[in-house]
Write a structure and sequence with these properties.
By secondary structure, the protein is mainly alpha-helical. The chain is built from seven helices and no strands. The chain is elongated, with a radius of gyration of 18 Å. The protein binds fe (ii) ion (FE2) (2 copies). One fe (ii) ion (FE2) binds next to α2 and α4.
Length: 196
């Protein structure tokens, strides 16, 4: 169904919470969110490699493929809105109702900060042809490296603190089924494994 070439059914497990991930049944809400994190990690790892390749170049002329890839990665990294909405509306709100605010409030703030960073990165890439190449490289490096650092930190907090906290505090299978239905209504990303 999806036209996207982001290989959604293949993912490499890369998390500080590997045992926790393996303890989840396939298709569980948290399992799906974690597989999305694996894909986001792949995107930001590649973004980091591209920035490293771009820095010594004087011009993009012989390396157009880097620009194409950069556009692809920025588009996917920026398209995580539904992932955030699922986290905020279906999960974080439930923790807040239970009176658990740490790290829920921090997570919300990080979503907001990273949304701005993603927008800045996308804007920069869209302005490639009207920006001197040296300025483009420097600005892209600054905004992307900050976003990469923030995203890695954010994913680590969710995988190792927020998600285990949810599993610990929401025990009812019926409630998880309700959360899953809410997530299905919100929708998934083109890079969500098994959802396209
Ligand atoms: Fe998040
Ligand atoms: Fe997340």
């Amino acid at each position: 169904m999806s036209k996207c070439q982001c290989n959604p059914d293949v993912f490499q497990i890369k998390t500080k919470a590997e045992d926790f991930f393996h303890s989840l049944p396939e298709g569980h809400v948290i399992y799906t969110l974690m597989t999305e994190h694996f894909k986001i990690r792949e995107f930001i790892d590649e973004l980091e490699q591209i920035i490293t390749k771009l820095m010594p170049l004087e011009s993009i002329n012989d390396h157009r493929e880097l620009l194409t890839r950069l556009e692809f990665l920025a588009r996917h990294i920026s398209s995580t809105r539904r992932h955030y909405i699922r986290e905020e509306i279906t999960l974080i709100q439930r923790l807040e109702i239970l009176g658990i605010r740490d790290p829920a409030i921090e997570i919300r703030q990080q979503h907001d900060v990273m949304s701005v960073e993603k927008q800045r990165m996308s804007n920069l890439i869209h302005q490639f042809y009207v920006t001197p190449f040296t300025d483009f490289k420097d600005s892209l490096r600054d905004v992307s490296l900050q976003l990469i650092t923030d995203l890695r930190n954010h994913i680590d907090i969710e995988d190792t603190v927020l998600y285990p906290q949810l599993i610990e505090n929401i025990k009812s299978e019926e409630e998880w089924a309700e959360i899953k239905a809410e997530c299905d209504r919100i929708g998934y990303n083109c890079f969500t494994p098994f959802k396209n």
